[in-house]
Structures are given as C-alpha cells and as structure tokens.
C-alpha cells in the first residue's frame, strides 16, 4: 500500500470513527478537553502504526484502548502536560456549574462518573462503540462473563441514579 | 426504564460531542510519533556503550564502578558522570540530571545528596507479586516506599512500615523545584530534568522513582485536593505490534525530609 493510499485510507477511518471514539473516551474519563487530547494522540499513534492498525479487527476499539491506556499512564505519572483530574469530581462540578465544553447531559455524565472505571470502560465499548461482548472482553483483557457482569452492574447503578431524575422530569 | 431506553439515553447524552481536530493535524502528530520511535535505536546504542563501560569498570579495582568521569568531593561544581546517568550541579545551585538507563540508583542517590539534595532514589526490578495473607497483589514501588496505595487491601494497622512520608504541596511549588526542559526527554531516549534544591520548602525532600514498567510507577491514588502527587517523564519505544514499551521512567514526588528517608 502506497503512502498516498494509506493516507486516504486513514483519513476515511478518521472521518468515520473520530466522533465515536471521542464519545467513548469521554464516557470513560468524564473530561472533554482531556478526552480530545487523548483521542488525538491515539489517532496519531494509529496513523504512525497504520499498517498494523488497519488490519486490526476493531480499529476503533484499538484507538479507544490506546487513548484509555494513555489516560491511565498519564494519571499514574501525574505528568504536567496533561493533568487528569478526579473524573467524578469534574463531572459533578460540570453538573453544578454547567460549564462543560459541549452540551453533554451533566446528570447522565455525573452518573457515569460515579461508576467504577472498569464499568465505564465496558459501557464505552459496549454502548458507544457498539462492540459485542467477546470483542469488548478481548479489548479489556477480561472474561466475557466479567464484561456482562460489569455491564449489568453499570446499568443497574445508572438506572438507580437516573430514575429519580426522570421521574422529576415527568412530573407536571 | 428498560435497558434499551437506558442505553439510548447514554448514547444521546454524548451525541452532540464531535471531534474538531483536522486530519492534517493528526497526521502531522503521527509523523512526530514515528520520529519518536526512531529513538530506541539510539537508546539501544547507548545501552551497548554503557554495558561496555560497566564491564570494563568491574575489571578495575576501583571504588567507582561504572564511573566514566570522576567526582571531585572538594569541587561542588564537578560532574559525576556515569554511563547510566549524569548529575551536574550548576553555579546557580540547580542540578541537571540525565538518566539513560535504570542502573546504579544508589550511586545516583549519593551524587544527588552530595550536591545538597535531600533525596531518596528507588528503582523497580522484576519481582513476583508480594502477598501477605492474601492482603497484597503486585506492589508498585511507590507503595513500598512512600505509602499504601491502591494495591493494598489489608487492614490499616497491618500496613507496612515505610521509610518516607508523602508531603502534600501545590503544583506550583513542585514546578518550582522540578523542571523537565524540552519535554524532559533527549533525542537518545534519556530523561532530562533540572532540580532546584533552593526551592524546596524547609524540611522537605524528594523521592525519585526510576522504573521500566508503568505498573512500577504509581503515584497516590487520590492525592489530597489541590496538591500535586508528583511529576514525571517516561520515554517509550514502540514494539512491532504497535504497543508502547517504556524505556526509562522517572517520577519525582515531594516527601518529608528525614534521616530514614532522605539521609
């Protein structure tokens, strides 16, 4: 594959996958600016390894996994260039102040951020990227049964968190 | 609300989020990633040279194993130059540190302390997970030195006695003490940082962690609000399967200075 063809191929992938990947990472970490930075970096790495990534069975999942790995490593090292704050706290602040960069439902985001990190990752891959259980398990390095358990717990917690809000909204 | 309705609600909550980064910017950044991958070859060459220097040094009956240059105790501006790292004290009192390999941390600690920095240098080495009555899993180096982190699941009163105590401080203070010029890495894949001992608050030192695996470098799970857990830089190479592999990682975190911790 020539460089020009590769670039066209990658550009098409980027156009079709960038929004979805960004949403999945946002659901996982809760902060839009950080999510954008991480996804940009992940796509840059995807381009740098495009010969490999283009043959990956789920390249979108590769990008999201790479972005989340970068998020974890940056958090662990508390690097200066990207400070990943406590996601729950950020989401709650957004919910209070309504200052998120793009219109994201603050109550739902706050509820997502109250989930454990692994449950958020499962939600991101299963619901936002629409991966099946087997592929999600493969990407996260866990058993398919564990994916189903995480998703089940996450749905229960979200329902519990959001139900009162829905009921309030439905009242006259 | 059934699962389908809930799933739809979650999807719709982020439906207005769109990536705005131009493709040209991503590709340009990708080229930079490719350029960074060329550093392992240089780093590898450095490793060979360093190995040679160390091997030669072991044949010489000297107290400075691995020393390429020499350190002059009477001259505070002298450099301690080792194959794995370089420490150079500037006239301003700032200390330039370049770390190329995870070798001889005790020597690095001695050199830094000799330059007036209260510091504890630790590094990770391959080891099996630590288990005490099922209370531990693989224990990151940070936990073993400074505090009980997210890997500890046992009762608090059974937590190990640790030599250092984390000093909560602001990012501004930490930035004044530790800088990573040029992003903190050199063309050869080494980590480069500058430490300003004069900016350390009284009674405070630094714990420096050197590692070759992300799992070995972990800062406090939740540093107190408004405080900096630490600062660090890692250099990576990229394996053939596209996965990043850490070459050198250096993390610095503030600790209370004490005889037990920082000497």
List keywords for this structure.
heterodimer; A: 172 residues; mainly alpha; 9 helices; 0% strand; globular; B: 263 residues; five-stranded antiparallel beta sheet; four-stranded mixed beta sheet
Structural description of this entry:
The complex is a heterodimer of chains A (172) and B (263). Chain A has 172 residues and is mainly α. In chain A, 77% of the residues lie in helices and 0% in strands. Chain A contains nine helices and no strands. In chain A, helix 1 packs antiparallel against helix 2 and helix 5 packs antiparallel against helix 6. Chain A starts with a helix and ends with a helix. Chain B has 263 residues and is an alpha+beta fold. Helices cover 28% and strands 21% of the residues of chain B. The longest helix of chain B is centred in the N-terminal third of the chain and has 21 residues. Chains A and B meet through helix 1, helix 2, helix 3, helix 4 and helix 6 of A and helix 1, helix 2, strand 8 and strand 9 of B.
Which helices and strands occur, and which strands form pairs?
The complex is a heterodimer of chains A (172) and B (263).
Chain A lengths: L2 H27 L2 H17 L1 H4 L5 H19 L9 H11 L8 H8 L3 H12 L4 H8 L3 H27 L2
Helix pairs in contact in A: 1-2, 1-4, 1-7, 2-4, 5-6, 6-9, 7-9, 8-9
Chain B lengths: L2 H11 L9 H15 L1 H21 L19 E3 L3 E5 L5 E5 L5 H10 L4 E5 L17 H5 L25 H7 E2 L11 E5 L8 E8 L19 E8 L5 E13 L2 H4 L1
Question: What about the largest sheet of chain B?
Answer: 5 strands, antiparallel
Q: Name the structural class of chain B.
A: alpha+beta
Order of helices and strands of chain A: HHHHHHHHH
Strand residues, percent of chain A: under 5%
Distinct helical segment count of chain A: 9
The string of secondary-structure elements of chain B, in order, is HHHEEEHEHHEEEEEH
Q: What amount of the residues of chain B lies in strands? A: 15-25%
Number of strands of chain A: 0
Low-confidence segments of chain A, given as residue ranges, are 75-101
Helix content of chain B: 25-40%
- Give start-end ranges of low-pLDDT stretches of chain B: 39-82, 126-154, 213-222
* Class of secondary structure makeup of chain A: mainly alpha
Oligomer: heterodimer
Major beta sheet of chain A, specifics?
none
| Average pLDDT rating of chain A | 76
SS field, number of helical segments of chain B? 7
Overall pLDDT level of chain B? 65
From the alpha carbons, calculate the radius of gyration of chain B and give it in angstroms: 22 Å
